[in-house]
Every structure is written in C-alpha cells, then in structure tokens.
Write the structure tokens for this entry.
Amino acid sequence: MKDINYWFVIVLCVVSTHLFAQDKQDEIIAIWDTGEAKVEIYQEGERYIGNPINPAGERATDIEVLNLEYDQGKWTGKIYAKKRDKLFDVECQIKDDVLHLEVDAGFRSRELQWTRAN
C-alpha cells in the first residue's frame, strides 16, 4: 500500500508541474497595446504568433509581427520591425501584465514594454 501511495504522489507532482507550466506559457495569449498599435498573440501549434489588430478590430493575419517559442520561462523568437522592414531576435517575459521585449539588433539592443489590452 505504501508503494501505491508513493507512486501516486510522484505522478501527481509531475502532472501538476506540467499543468502549471502550460498555464504559464499561455499567459502571453492576449491582445497587447504597443503604444502605437494593438497586437494579438495566439498559439498555433507549438509557436506563439503575433498579428496586428486592423482598424475593424480584427486580426490582420497577412502581417506577422511576432513568431515565438516558449522555453524555460520565457518566449524567444523573431519580431518584425516595420520601420526597418527586418526581422530581429527577441526575448519576452511577462511581469505584472506587462510584456517586456528585449530586441537584439546586432550591436544594439532595445527594450520595449507592451501592456495587456484585454
């Protein structure tokens, strides 16, 4: 009986850890206000995609602003810079409903903050 209880506790710990991690990685799914526009981030397979919201309030799927993957508490991938018409490496983390983006543009990096819109 002790063996069954032992294995039950082990399985419960593993399952709850996995469920908590899933919730954490999905917390990026939202509409974010960049200060200039709104971007909707949603999950597509294992990736998190960000598209701008058009004036009609719909996701503009023809423009991909973010393409991210979740790993060890942060999202990493590519961000599209409209002014430069280029893709840059980006690392994102969420703290208190603020999405912190660190954009690596070669010799320079830039930090951005987006706020949750919904």
Q: What stands out?
A: Confidence is low (pLDDT under 50) at residues 6-21. The beta strands are 30-33, 38-44, 47-52, 66-71, 74-81, 86-95, 98-105, 108-116. The chain is about 20% helix and 50% strand.
